[in-house]
Amino acid sequence: MHCESPIKRRVSRKIWVGSVPVGGDAPIAVQSMTNTDTCDVAATVGQIQRLVDAGVDIVRISVPDMDAAEAFGRIKQQVQVPLVADIHFDYKIALRVAELGVDCLRINPGNIGREDRVKAVVDAARDKGIPIRIGVNAGSLEKDLQKKYGEPTPQALVESALRHVEHLDKLDFQDFKVSVKASDVFMAVEAYRLLAKQIVQPLHLGITEAGGLRSGTVKSAVGLGMLLAEGIGDTIRISLAADPVEEVKVGFDILKSLHLRSRGINFIACPSCSRQNFDVVKTMNELEGRLEDLLVPMDVAVIGCVVNGPGEAKEAHIGLTGGTPNNLVYIDGKPAQKLNNDNLVDELERLIREKAAAKAEADAALIARS
Description:
Helix content is 44%, strand content 18%. The protein is α/β, with parallel strands linked by helices and 370 residues long. Helix 2 packs parallel to helix 3 and helix 11 crosses helix 13. This is 4-hydroxy-3-methylbut-2-en-1-yl diphosphate synthase (flavodoxin). InterPro entries: Dihydropteroate_synth-like_sf (IPR011005), IspG_bac (IPR016425), IspG_bac-typ (IPR004588), IspG_C (IPR058579), IspG_TIM (IPR058578), NO2/SO3_Rdtase_4Fe4S_sf (IPR045854).
């Protein structure tokens, strides 16, 4: 279905993380984080490449010490995607990765130490055109805020964030983005809502420590979906106790569902029932696995019977409707051919790939003419 998103995004200041614009009128960026040992350069580079293949826009890497900082420099030389260095406590690590070409510094000014150390990091970022992300988490609030509020609250998260923002304001540094993450959906959502009204910088969204693949996906989709539907958010990271590649897939699925980004196939599929004329679940599992490499935005409907099948198929680029004795394929809303169940997935894959190639060529020609 070709619906425009009704979402009106919050107006924010545009910054650049390497070659990726964040905020302003830029597309919402999808971020993930490596979970390899940063000092294992080969493993980290390999994981980053898998994230790139999945479509990631920005990758964050933990840099806990100077050995990791030196490894970060070697990693940076081998990848093209913008890299964010996640740094805590030791300001010298931030200075070193700035020399090595980091694209963004993720710091918490409150744990960097004295004001002169924060200033040194900010000066290095300014000199080299490196943005900063202020990252506030409910699990690591300052002790005085824990005492003041008794427990993590949206107001405590925002107060912590604004305290750090003030650090950068005093140093006349405005190229930063902010996150206020919590594992509780309502706490995170309310914190972002409050913060969105008080600063103009981009917001990086996430439900931190969301859980495993299934539970974390649901929790992230609910929380980020609420915020994105309100126009809040400029980058997202889906935090899963799973392969980071899954974070990227889920991130794009959330954005596709809200018509905020289009990448790859948007499947419309029925949950199946006794009316199905082919095995919908098996067909979908096979198609999703086979077609992960397709990046062309397309709608593909796979419906097991004629109740909703024709209606959904007519709205998709490719649509399959179950029928007896043969299933009917629609292309661009028009009946095209019939397929039996014997080679259903093979034939459907072929048709989808042919349509994707034709669509990519047409899209490229349209861009060239504009």
